[in-house]
Hints:
By secondary structure, the protein is an alpha/beta fold. It folds into 2 domains: about 5-120, Response regulator (Rossmann fold); about 125-235, Arc Repressor Mutant, subunit A. It is about 40% helix and about 20% strand. About 35% of the residues are buried.
Amino acid sequence: MNERILVVEDEKHLADGLRFNLEVEGYTVEMTETGEEALQRITNTEAEPVALVLLDVMLPGIDGFSVVRRMRELGVYVPVLMLTARGRSEDIIKGFESGADDYLPKPFELEIVFARVRGLLRRTAWAATVNAPKNQVLNRLELGDRVIDFDRMELSEPDGQRHQLTLMETNLLRFLAERDGQTVSRSQLLEGVWGVREDTDTRAIDNFIVRLRRYIEPDPAHPRFLTTIRGVGYRFQQKPTD
């Protein structure tokens, strides 16, 4: 295993507990206590690359929202799992809007932390080999005049502009696209994309869908490619019939 995880947490007892248990699971763990230190470490091209960041929201100096936003602005798309005592829906939405891939409210169970970490570290290769209903891996998707490159985690506009997608945006879109025309429930998305079975606030999924529509829909308020099936989940159609 030996993936390198950066834990950004200023509560020493919690940070030490996470480090001990993650190392028992076979991960290499580094730790910082502030957002500034985290950004310095993540952007240090001479250091060993980090595979995942466990990021607390409430930090001395710049907060976790600012850290992940700055990471994405710098083109750093390492998966980020936010840890927050602020479980209000507006805070969760703010985390996703900043570019986080997943979140866990405190207090949390270690087994759930491990499940989320494993799910994020599977990356697109995990989604391709485990989740794809067909043997063929979907690497490229054309939606009208937009093109999504799943390997690069990138969307190209007809005018040449490119938008970087986060890990979870990429995995979610590929999961739906590989089931073109099928209705996919929220529970299927939780298990298939996030890799978890326990109860999770499905608003997280809804917020990701809103973000994807901003990328792929000409009119996000009236989606054609990615539609809501009320009371069930979502349906993706590469070539809508309406």
